[in-house]
Design goal:
CATH architecture of one domain: 2-Layer Sandwich
Strand content: 5-15%
Radius of gyration: 31 Å
Strand order of the largest sheet: 4-3-7-6-5
Largest sheet: 5 strands, mixed
Number of helices: 10
Amino acid sequence: MNHTAEEALQDVARERLPEADEVAAYLRARPDFFEQYPELLDTLRLPHVHRGTVSLVERQLERLRERLAREQRRLRELIENGRQNDHTQARLHRLTLDLMRAQRPAEAIEALHRSLTEDFRVAAVALRLRHAAPADLPGWVGSLDAQGSRLAEVERVLDRHRAWCGEVGGAVRDWLFGTGSGVRSAALLPVGAAAEYGLLAIGSTDPLAYNKAMNTHYLDRLASLLGACLSRWLVQAEVSRA
């Protein structure tokens, strides 16, 4: 025999009133409860921040709309991330082609600087080589001297052979980018296996642009690409000297 909603409530009133957790567990275990007692949907009222109280159905619809809005935002973020990844892939591809076309180290270095500053909008770039830098290279390319190697952030990159990202200032900033550069954060990338060729530094005036939590996937690819390019020139130089 089916009870009406009123009879069901009277039965509950004659017994011990359940705790809130018990009511919640009961409803979770019986998702069809309100199908058996649909009239309860018209009597239950829920507090609402802006409208005082609303019916359970209204609140359910509102929650569904909120969930849909969250999923739409997440989808837009995924689409935007995918678009940005596509752009990054295209820029790296262009840089790869430019490096392959370069006939001299100076041309390769110029292509790298142009790609980073124009395509990737990098504020500052520095390349420090373990080997002596050729005389025809620009000023942002230099040697990895003993002074720079002893700087904590640089030493960490050279020893662990992994990218380092974070805020920079003082001696590190001045050694890499020069005084008055305005650089606040940087990514330091080991170039070549075990940083055998040195390191590449990319700087930003935004203190949060490069941070310890960021994904370095594309930065690592950039460093690997540069390492392969430098390896090619070093091999050619050794062949020329032989």
